[in-house]
């Protein structure tokens, strides 16, 4: 099979398309023929050797994928050859092994993909939607009637969070860094959208909430925004830190005066039972039509290096997907 391998840590150029032996499902495993692979920012940190999870070299990046089961080994029940699935990690590791034409998985790493959802859409489910579900419901206890501010609402996690929040009756305020991104956020149902590159956008957010501020803030770049979030969040509000790229200075009195809660979130540290609940919520949302992954860019698997550059560039507008 063909797969993307990184034989050293470094820039995007270390990602190379190579021929490697086809993996075979062992007892208690299934094999998936991959039709699409999702690209996430954390994969660029891992490739650079700057991530909490450091794979043994060489390694195949990626944890998000979708395809069709083509091998079911002894000891596996509930799955058949031909089943359409999305993948949450591989038997190699929960955080990598998916940038390939084939991937072997444990049964709890494959999840039913409804017929109405394309493989490209399915490749954008695991990392963004589990992260969004955990942030909104496992951390911030988002409820009907809440106002939710989602930074980066046009990216993978932002789109997922917008759809989940609206499905439970929350009002979404979304930010993005381009006109195209704002259009994407509005298309998902965001009631208000603001370009976070414009001066004064925080004051506008305060105005549209009647001066109270959002009840929940999902923060994708805490080193830039966290202190501002604490300025605008409503009394008793909840801020969930999903992304960060450096040290941050805050005025902790803002937390104290407003009785605000600040939560951290790392996908790989979510308890297994919460992961299970998240996937159940995802599949229910796909079935009901409330969840609809947005694909922004599709490119061949061989262009993984280009995808790693694009996923870190500003102006996100949907999921970047590689096609083996």
SSE diagram, text form:
Blueprint: E1 2-6, E2 15-19, E3 30-39, H1 41-47, E4 64-72, E5 84-88, E6 102-105, E7 110-112, H2 119-122, H3 126-139, E8 147-150, H4 156-167, E9 171-176, H5 179-187, E10 192-195, H6 201-208, E11 216-219, H7 222-232, E12 238-241, H8 253-258, E13 261-264, H9 272-288, E14 295-300, H10 304-311, E15 319-323
Parallel strand pairs: 8-9, 8-11, 9-10, 11-12, 12-13, 14-15
Antiparallel strand pairs: 1-2, 3-4, 3-6, 3-15, 4-5, 5-7
What do these coordinates show?
- There is one protein chain.
- The chain is of the alpha/beta class.
- The protein has ten helices and 15 strands.
- The chain has helices spanning 41-47, 119-122, 126-139, 156-167, 179-187, 201-208, 222-232, 253-258, 272-288, 304-311; strands spanning 2-6, 15-19, 30-39, 64-72, 84-88, 102-105, 110-112, 147-150, 171-176, 192-195, 216-219, 238-241, 261-264, 295-300, 319-323.
- The strands form three sheets. Strands 3, 4, 5, 6, 7, 14 and 15 form a seven-stranded mixed β-sheet that branches.
- α5 links the parallel β9 (171-176) and β10.
- α3 crosses α9 (272-288).
- The N and C termini lie close together (10 Å).
- The mean pLDDT is 97.
In short:
The protein has 324 residues and is of the alpha/beta class. The protein contains ten helices and 15 strands. The N and C termini lie close together (10 Å).
Could you describe the largest sheet, including whether it forms a barrel? Answer: 7 strands, mixed
Count of DSSP-assigned helices: 10
Assess the beta-strand content as a share of residues.
15-25%
**Radius of gyration (Å):** 20 Å
Distance between the termini: 10 Å
Can you write the helix and strand succession as a string?
A: EEEHEEEEHHEHEHEHEHEHEHEHE
Number of strands: 15
Mean pLDDT: 97
State the helical fraction: 25-40%
What spatial form do the alpha-carbon principal axes imply? Answer: globular
Protein structure class: alpha/beta
Uncertain runs: none
């Amino acid at each position: 099979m063909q797969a993307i391998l990184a034989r050293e840590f470094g820039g995007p150029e270390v990602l190379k398309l190579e021929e490697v032996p086809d993996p075979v499902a062992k007892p208690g495993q299934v094999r998936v023929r991959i039709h699409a692979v999702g690209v996430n920012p954390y994969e660029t940190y891992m490739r650079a050797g700057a991530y909490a999870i450091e794979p043994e070299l060489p390694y195949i990046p990626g944890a998000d994928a979708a395809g069709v089961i083509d091998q079911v080994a002894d000891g596996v029940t509930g799955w058949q050859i031909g089943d359409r699935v999305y993948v949450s990690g591989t038997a190699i590791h929960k955080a990598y092994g998916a940038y390939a034409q084939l991937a072997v998985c444990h049964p709890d790493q494959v999840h039913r993909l409804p017929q109405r959802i394309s493989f490209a859409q399915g490749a954008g489910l695991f990392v963004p939607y589990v992260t969004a579900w955990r942030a909104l419901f496992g951390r911030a206890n988002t409820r009907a009637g809440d106002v939710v501010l989602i930074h980066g609402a046009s990216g993978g996690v932002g789109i997922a969070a917008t759809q989940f929040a609206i499905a439970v009756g929350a009002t979404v305020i979304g930010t993005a860094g381009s006109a195209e991104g704002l259009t994407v956020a509005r298309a998902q149902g965001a009631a208000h959208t603001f370009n976070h590159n414009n001066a004064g956008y925080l004051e506008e957010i305060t105005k549209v909430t009647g001066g109270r501020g959002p009840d929940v803030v999902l923060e994708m770049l805490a080193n830039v925004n966290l202190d501002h979030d604490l300025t605008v969040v409503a009394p008793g509000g909840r801020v969930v830190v999903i992304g960060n790229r450096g040290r941050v200075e805050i005025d902790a009195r803002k937390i104290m005066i407003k009785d605000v809660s600040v939560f951290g979130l790392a996908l790989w540290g979510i308890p297994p039972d919460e992961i299970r609940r998240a996937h159940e919520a995802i599949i229910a949302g796909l079935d009901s039509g409330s969840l609809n992954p947005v694909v922004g860019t599709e490119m061949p698997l061989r262009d993984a290096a280009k995808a790693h550059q694009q996923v870190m560039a500003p102006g996100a507008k949907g999921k970047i997907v590689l096609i083996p």
